[in-house]
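Give me structure tokens for this 288-residue protein.
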Amino acid sequence: MGFKVQVYIYDLTQGMARTMGPALIGRPLDGVWHTAVVVYGKEYFFGGGGIEYCNPGGTMMGQPLKIEDLGETQITEDLFQDYLRTQSQDRFRGDRYDLFRHNCNNFSHETAQFLVGKGIPQHILDLPNEILSTPMGQMLAPMIQQMTPSGTSLPSNIGSGNSAANGLANGAAGAFSTAPNTQKEVQKTSFPFKDFITFDQPLKVDGLSKKLEEFNNAQKNDDTKLTDSEVKVVLGIAKGLVRLSDENFNILTKVDKWEKSQIFPLLDILRSKCLKPSFDNSEQIKEV
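Here you go.
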């Protein structure tokens, strides 16, 4: 008799991806996916804290959007622990986590292949490359990376997640050790993330200007639509050619009245200004 293997599929955006999709890749997105493998009565996932586990459905995401049955495995739990011990010391160490290139979905895929010989749905694995292949995705990627704090594992609702690496290193037999000295407290992610997001990549003004014009043309209200001269002011600010006087700052922040899925140009400009402070006064900084 084998052990049932399932993949739990979560939408990190809680349905917002359908609104964000057209701005990112030109079409609606069904979701931005987090996955975990459920086997032996536990949910296993990978993040900045390494390989961890909790009770099924015990992360801050609650119940998954979808559950897919992958089949049954004949691999014993002891052998699975040996596999996780090896993976947690090398390929799936916490410091090797990368939101776009080496994430929870890669872990779920490879773990499922080990257990039942087949991986998770391919469209989940393909989504990061689909986003990064677009100009907007490339522009936003560093910002999204910066918004992912160290310790990207999802917090557990049972008090703390359990580190597979720690449990195995302490000689857990059968199930991973859950004694207090082998538990690893999972850092909780608090949203909205209010710290300044700064990074060295320069603005890609060409891509930004195209999106700015596209979103501006989509405005149906004169109170939110920028005039031609105001568009030039915003692009001048982006290029560093126009001073952030109070008047120009008010023009720039007019974009904040747009739909949330359309304010990426504003966020990217403000990000660059935070990196190399060029605000005219402290009131502007406070408003940002």
